[in-house]
Amino acid sequence: ISSMATPGNSADKPLAERSPFTTTSFQKKTRSKLISIPGTRPSVQNGQLLVSTGVTSLDYLLGGGLAVGTVLLIEEDQYDSYSHMIVKYFLAEGVVCQHELFMAAAQDDPDDILQELPHPILDDVVIHNPVEQPTLSCKCQDSLDSMKIAWRYQNLPKVQSTLASSSRFGHYYDVSKTMEPDIRQAAKCHRFFLPEHLTQSSPAQCLMLGSYSALLKSLQEVIHREGFDLANAMSKSRNILRIGLHSLGSALWGDDLSFHVNPRHRHALTTFLYGLRALLRSSLSVAVVTISSHLIQDRALMGSITRLCDNAIALESFKGSERETNPLCKDYHGLLHVHQVPHLNCLASYLPDHKDLAFKLKRKQFSIEVCFYLYSAKSQYSHVLNKRVLNKNPTNPL
């Protein structure tokens, strides 16, 4: 023991008189300080910085919110009513959180879109209660069959109709009113209106290449000029840039994806999305892109577009279909399909709890819920299918 002591018997000296070289080299490992920006919070799954989409049920569906540096793809419904509404929610949440906005469109003036943002409800408290499971009556059926049906419903997993997390993130909005001008004008908005950026001298064959190139260039200028680029040292306080891109791939952008099975410039949109995602990865920005997927003839190309985005959902409206008059679907306005989930900082990506999702637009709120009509129909189909398999081969239930 004496051979291991330091010269001068420093172990017997007071702590203040000891040499600094005698202290241990062990240091407590601390986590890096997270970026603190209003309207954001870290993800509990992977620590990624999240922002709210403005729709609480959509935040829950995406794993708590929309990750900064990612792209959310929304495949528009047939009449572009509900997808346009989600974009307005996304921008309205940015106004309330004092984030900067970037809105790009080819048909509607971005100033007109910003004037139609929903009115925020800052003092609301929404309590989501679970819905009781459906039960079937035994009066009109045979006793044995009714007991089997009731037993099957009792063993279904209990689900909530409205998707909502335990902790509130984001705000609620009244779609029957528009945001007050003084609240909207307090936010810094950047706009991109395609007719203003294309000159008359541009050749027609390069229209789509010029439109996407001008849009990407405008985004780069805003990100670098306003200090959203993480590569450069920023002197001012950090903030989030919310980007809304409306109806990309349509004829209004000069694209021919909706007219031909083999479009001439089929890689114009995918090249833009590739550059957009690379630009967002190195900046404090998040984008919501809407595309009229039902007009795109090449389905393989649509698959490539989906894979170039981090999140992808599709809205299927009931307008003009048989489900619009179906009494079982009277409580909903359409179905929501999840086509792509993000793979960020983790080996296993977040997966939604349910796939049978529907949306509805109430008087004051757009919400996404679990559709019990589809949920029970699939359960009945699965029960019948399993019963047929067991009847064909009763000795081997597997």
TrEMBL record:
* UniProt cross-references to CDD domains, sorted A to Z: Elp4
Which pathway, metabolic or otherwise, does it act in? Answer: tRNA modification; 5-methoxycarbonylmethyl-2-thiouridine-tRNA biosynthesis
Keywords assigned = Cytoplasm, Nucleus, tRNA processing
| GO terms for biological process, alphabetical | tRNA wobble uridine modification
Do the record's keywords include Hydrolase? Answer: no
The cellular component terms of Gene Ontology attached to this UniProt record, alphabetical and capped at eight, are: cytoplasm; elongator holoenzyme complex; transcription elongation factor complex
Which Gene3D superfamilies does the entry link to? P-loop containing nucleotide triphosphate hydrolases
Query: Cross-referenced Pfam families, in alphabetical order?
Result: PAXNEB
Query: Where does the record say this protein resides?
Result: Cytoplasm; Nucleus
Protein family = Belongs to the ELP4 family.
What role does this protein play?
Component of the elongator complex which is required for multiple tRNA modifications, including mcm5U (5-methoxycarbonylmethyl uridine), mcm5s2U (5-methoxycarbonylmethyl-2-thiouridine), and ncm5U (5-carbamoylmethyl uridine). The elongator complex catalyzes the formation of carboxymethyluridine in the wobble base at position 34 in tRNAs.
Q: What is this protein called?
A: Elongator complex protein 4
Organism the protein comes from? Mastacembelus armatus (zig-zag eel)
